[in-house]
């Protein structure tokens, strides 16, 4: 007979005692359960004890989390959280340095548990931690354990960061600013400051004032990758918390100090592989830098602005000044106005009498004007060649420089996501971005010359303008997808990908599409689908068995904490648990938590997930919604919440979990993989039919002959 649903069979252990196998009634008060367990071992004062998970994070069992206990769980009978908190509170005040160090080390470990943390904080334990730091009598191991314990306690949000004393903050800042200091202490100090920055404006200003950008750049130049990572994290936190004006100022100073070249040389191209966290910070730095163009991009031209009118006139003067001087000395005002209109027409402005009207549209707004002026000033020969070359063509065949520049600027803004908020999880950055100052402008200079080159290759007319820019967009996106490491390499590759190459690629894709649309081929596709879908299913399950490293994300910041989840080889149990940084594929035995597949009830994705409902619903969380999924399991309907590292991993996991639940694979990756496999299989099957047209209907079967006398009779031959 099956046990009642509110009863779980567990083992309880205690050092030096024979384990107890008990049936735990979930409806029974926890104090009564502890009394029974203590009585079985003849232990007095049951209120001084508590139950704790024996594996994993060894969290204390409370009335609120006791529902997580499963059949077969192993628990420890240990000292209660209030007793532990009281003991450690006394231990960290001990004059014996060994006792103090051990107490702080244990405090750092136990503070991960919310129940213990609350007990310790209620005893004013943080005040003791503050005093250890503020007195400044300890360094090395004791100080590192103190800072680690402080970080863990603050993680639970019982205490606001704004309550920290000025003396404590100054000490933390001093550890960061010291030239000689234990690396682990500096790492923890940088993490503390990173958490402080977004919590309040006052703390942001304090940290920005006390920890200079120069000091952070010094930390970025060390060989210790963890210290480098924490310094980058604080720099990014400062940039994200700054106002637009402060961000402009900080980025200008970073450009002055050549941070891009340093990152390009010492981080991107270092001997150490680039971790996910650093890749994210580089993506954010790239995004912040590109978003500095947003203000100009969203500002239309003001025809009454003297500065903007002068920039516009400088374009004309750079291309036609000699001609203008010869004509304007004796010409009337009307004649000069007519000449200017003619020259603006040659420059490719649609409204040549009032070219400012072309720049009213925002985006790209004034950013297009900035790009044109940059091109004319930094590559004057290329600029003059572009304008004069097209001036000598017929009107309908000339490539309009201004119109092309405005549209190209808009295309680059869309491709590079200028003006879009930073993603919380993305890691996609362009290595070449960090190898070049004025990246956006330099990229524009390459691409505007590409427009002219493609225009000539297409022998385009004014009616083909949109087609040419569509081809240019394709050339840019295809080249960027190759992740060139420098702008020079980008320039080489994008110029090799000329119009004829684009046509070949399109033709190949079109032929493949036409080939696969023939009726017999469509029938063959349908026959192959079940076999290939089974192959995809096997791949998904294998991927779940290999497992994935997931990152915990809070509302305050990207967490350093990692956890791993994988499916057992027999596809019956999901194993998961916390892991340390640097562990790529932990063995299944080291993952303490388990969810039987049979207990899984449903899969939730996106907005349906409980952990996405807890977060604010701003634009910045859109990417988190796209990567979030949750497993609902057990009769109590608990949830295990995930945020996938990439969209690819999201698709693999949701497909695999849907299969385990007996449902269809629904991700977009399934269709993509199926199309790729079908394409490969069809190409192999149709290899012998190359250059042979496949009829839509099979040829008719001929009628049988009137007689079979034509058949050779072997019996006569034998005689």
From TrEMBL:
> What InterPro entries would the database entry show?
ARM-like, ARM-type_fold, ELMO_ARM, ELMO_dom, ELMO_domain-containing, PH-like_dom_sf, PH_domain
Keywords, A to Z, come to: Apoptosis, Phagocytosis, SH3-binding
Gene3D superfamilies under this entry? Answer: 6.10.250.810, Leucine-rich Repeat Variant, Pleckstrin-homology domain (PH domain)/Phosphotyrosine-binding domain (PTB)
Gene Ontology terms describing biological process: actin filament organization; apoptotic process; cell motility; phagocytosis
Write one Gene Ontology MF term. SH3 domain binding
* Domain ELMO, chain residue ranges per copy: 307-480
Its job: Involved in cytoskeletal rearrangements required for phagocytosis of apoptotic cells and cell motility. Acts in association with DOCK1 and CRK. Was initially proposed to be required in complex with DOCK1 to activate Rac Rho small GTPases. May enhance the guanine nucleotide exchange factor (GEF) activity of DOCK1.
Q: What is this protein called?
A: ELMO3 protein
Say which species the protein is native to: Nothoprocta ornata
């Amino acid at each position: 007979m099956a046990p009642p649903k509110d009863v779980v069979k567990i083992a309880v252990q205690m050092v030096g005692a024979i384990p107890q196998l008990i049936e735990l009634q979930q409806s029974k008060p926890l104090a009564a359960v502890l009394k029974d367990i203590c009585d079985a071992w003849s232990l007095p004062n049951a209120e001084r004890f508590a139950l704790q998970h024996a594996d994993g994070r060894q969290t204390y069992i409370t009335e609120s989390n006791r529902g997580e206990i499963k059949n077969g769980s192993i628990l420890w009978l240990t000292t209660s959280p209030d007793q532990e908190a009281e003991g450690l509170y006394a231990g960290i005040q001990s004059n014996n340095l060994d006792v103090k160090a051990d107490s702080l080390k244990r405090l750092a470990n136990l503070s991960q548990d919310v129940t213990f943390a609350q007990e310790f904080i209620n005893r004013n334990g943080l005040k003791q931690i503050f005093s250890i730091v503020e007195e400044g009598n300890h360094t090395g191991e004791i100080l590192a354990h103190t800072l680690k314990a402080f970080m863990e306690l603050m993680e639970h949000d019982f205490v606001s960061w704004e309550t920290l004393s000025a003396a404590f903050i100054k000490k933390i800042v001093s550890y960061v600013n010291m030239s000689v200091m234990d690396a682990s202490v500096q790492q923890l100090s940088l993490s503390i400051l990173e958490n402080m920055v977004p919590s309040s404006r006052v703390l942001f200003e304090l940290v920005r004032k006390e920890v200079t950008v120069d000091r952070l750049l010094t930390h970025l130049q060390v060989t210790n990758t963890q210290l480098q990572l924490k310094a980058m994290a604080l720099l990014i936190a400062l940039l994200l918390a700054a106002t637009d004006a402060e961000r402009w100022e900080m980025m200008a100073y970073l450009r002055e100090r050549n941070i891009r070249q340093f990152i390009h040389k010492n981080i991107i191209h270092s001997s150490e592989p680039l971790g996910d966290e650093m890749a994210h910070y580089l993506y954010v730095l790239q995004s912040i830098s590109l978003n500095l163009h947003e203000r100009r991009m969203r500002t239309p031209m003001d025809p009454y602005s003297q500065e903007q009118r002068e920039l516009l006139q400088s374009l004309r003067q750079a291309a036609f000044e000699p001609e203008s001087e010869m004509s304007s000395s004796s010409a009337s005002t009307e004649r000069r106005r007519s000449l200017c209109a003619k020259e603006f027409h040659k420059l490719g402005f649609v409204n040549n009498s009032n070219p400012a009207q072309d720049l009213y549209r925002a985006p790209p707004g004034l950013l297009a004007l900035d790009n044109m002026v940059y091109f004319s000033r930094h590559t004057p020969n290329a600029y003059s060649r572009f304008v004069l070359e097209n001036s000598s063509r017929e009107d309908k065949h000339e490539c309009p420089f201004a119109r092309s520049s405005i549209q190209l600027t808009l295309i680059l803004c869309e491709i590079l996501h200028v003006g879009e908020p930073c993603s919380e999880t993305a890691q996609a950055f362009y290595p070449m971005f960090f190898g070049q100052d004025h990246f956006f402008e330099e990229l524009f200079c390459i691409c505007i010359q590409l427009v002219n080159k493609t225009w000539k290759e297409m022998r385009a007319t004014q009616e083909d303008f949109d087609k040419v820019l569509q081809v240019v967009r394709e050339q840019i996106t295809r080249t960027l997808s190759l992740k060139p490491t420098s702008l020079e390499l980008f320039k080489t590759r994008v110029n090799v990908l000329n119009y004829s190459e684009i046509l070949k690629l399109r033709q190949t894709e079109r032929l493949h599409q036409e080939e696969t649309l023939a009726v017999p081929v469509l029938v063959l596709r349908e026959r192959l689908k079940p076999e290939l879908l089974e192959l995809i299913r096997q791949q998904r399950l294998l991927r779940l068995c290999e497992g994935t490293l997931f990152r915990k994300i809070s509302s305050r910041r990207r967490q350093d904490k990692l956890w791993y989840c994988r499916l057992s080889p027999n596809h019956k149990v999901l194993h998961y648990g916390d892991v340390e940084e640097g562990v790529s594929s932990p063995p299944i035995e080291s993952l303490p938590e388990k969810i039987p597949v049979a207990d899984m009830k449903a899969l939730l994705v996106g907005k349906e997930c409980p952990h996405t409902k807890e977060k604010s619903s701003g634009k910045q969380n859109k990417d988190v919604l796209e990567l979030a999924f949750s497993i609902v399991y057990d009769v109590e309907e608990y949830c295990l919440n995930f945020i996938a590292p990439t969209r690819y991993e999201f698709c693999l996991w949701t497909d695999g979990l849907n299969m385990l639940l007996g449902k269809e694979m629904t991700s977009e990756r399934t269709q993509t993989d199926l199309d790729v496999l079908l394409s490969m299989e069809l190409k192999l099957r149709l290899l012998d039919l190359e250059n042979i047209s496949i009829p839509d209907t099979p040829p008719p079967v001929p009628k049988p002959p009137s007689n079979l006398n034509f058949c050779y009779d072997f019996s006569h031959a034998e005689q």
